[in-house]
């Protein structure tokens, strides 16, 4: 999600700044592709390209098989990459992050496309407002007008969409973890459904609901920070 927010908003802002140019067209094509492609199909394409043809990243798994014998991970929290980091097993940490690249790209593609399109559309709408024209008439620099006035007022809808897209990330893990054979909560949920494990299914549903509520609560706090009028409603 962090990748989608940072790069999605940045690319949307960049596309709005260079509206109608080549950079804008490339970013819009990337955004449409990210929104349109199913997660499982995009995952297969990334595996074929980066794991099969270019061999830059591993295709499946959380760690290399030989790592379990050369650098075994001490379990502390149950999150292997984090456990390897806090226990000083940096070889396992780097290996886990290397395995995490393709699943993270696959999972964040939809949110990246959605946020970049949203950022571009909102920013262009704000830039057409009268107070932006007045600020330019007063002689304020284009950089100050764009980043200080326009971008701040374009952020609230983007923050709202960020919270809503979290639901996609939660459900998207079911498909992505199956494609990459990643032993996470998505794979656990699928196995629980197939084995009709009702307590596990209820626990996963409750965990997803709590996570969704917490994220939307954080979104409301960010809204209040960006727009103080929210506290008065």
Please outline what is shown here.
This is Glutathione transport system permease protein GsiC. This protein is mostly helical. The protein has helices spanning about 1-15, 20-35, 40-55, 65-70, 80-85, 90-125, 130-135, 140-180, 185-195, 200-225.
Q: Work out the count of structural domains.
A: 1
Shape: globular
Largest sheet: none
CATH class: Mainly Alpha
| Beta-strand share of residues | under 5%
Q: In which range does the helix fraction lie?
A: over 70%
Average pLDDT reading: 83
**Count of helix runs:** 10
Low-confidence stretches: none
Class of secondary structure makeup:
mainly alpha
CATH architecture: Orthogonal Bundle
In CATH, what is the homologous superfamily?
MetI-like
The count of DSSP E runs of length 2 or more, i.e. the number of strands, is 0
Within the CATH hierarchy, at the fold level, what is the topology? MetI-like fold
Order of helices and strands: HHHHHHHHHH
Backbone CA Rg: 21 Å
Kindly, what is the distance between the CA atoms of the first and last residues, rounded to a whole number of angstroms? 29 Å
InterPro entries: MetI-like, MetI-like_sf
GO cellular component, one term: plasma membrane
Keywords: Cell membrane, Membrane, Transmembrane, Transmembrane helix, Transport
Domain ABC transmembrane type-1: 1-223
């Amino acid at each position: 999600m962090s990748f989608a927010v940072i790069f999605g908003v940045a690319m949307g802002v960049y596309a709005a700044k260079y509206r109608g140019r080549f950079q804008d067209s490339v970013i819009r094509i990337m955004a449409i592709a990210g929104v349109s492609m199913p997660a499982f199909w995009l995952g297969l394409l990334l595996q074929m390209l980066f794991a099969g043809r270019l061999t830059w990243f591993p295709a499946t798994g959380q760690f290399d098989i030989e790592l379990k014998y050369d650098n075994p991970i001490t379990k502390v929290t149950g999150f292997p990459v984090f456990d390897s980091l806090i226990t000083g097993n940096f070889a396992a940490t780097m290996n886990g992050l290397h395995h995490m690249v393709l699943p993270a790209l696959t999972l964040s593609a939809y949110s990246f496309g959605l946020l970049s399109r949203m950022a571009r559309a909102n920013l262009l709408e704000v830039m057409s407002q009268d107070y932006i024209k007045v600020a330019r008439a007063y002689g304020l620099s284009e950089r100050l007008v764009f980043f200080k006035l326009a971008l701040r007022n374009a952020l609230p809808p983007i923050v709202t969409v960020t919270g809503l897209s979290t639901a996609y990330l939660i459900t998207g893990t079911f498909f992505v973890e199956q494609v990459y054979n990643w032993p996470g909560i998505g794979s656990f949920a699928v196995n629980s459904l197939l084995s009709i494990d009702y307590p596990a299914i209820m626990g996963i549903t409750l965990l997803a609901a709590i996570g969704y509520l917490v994220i939307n609560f954080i979104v409301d706090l960010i809204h209040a920070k960006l727009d103080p009028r929210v506290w008065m409603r």
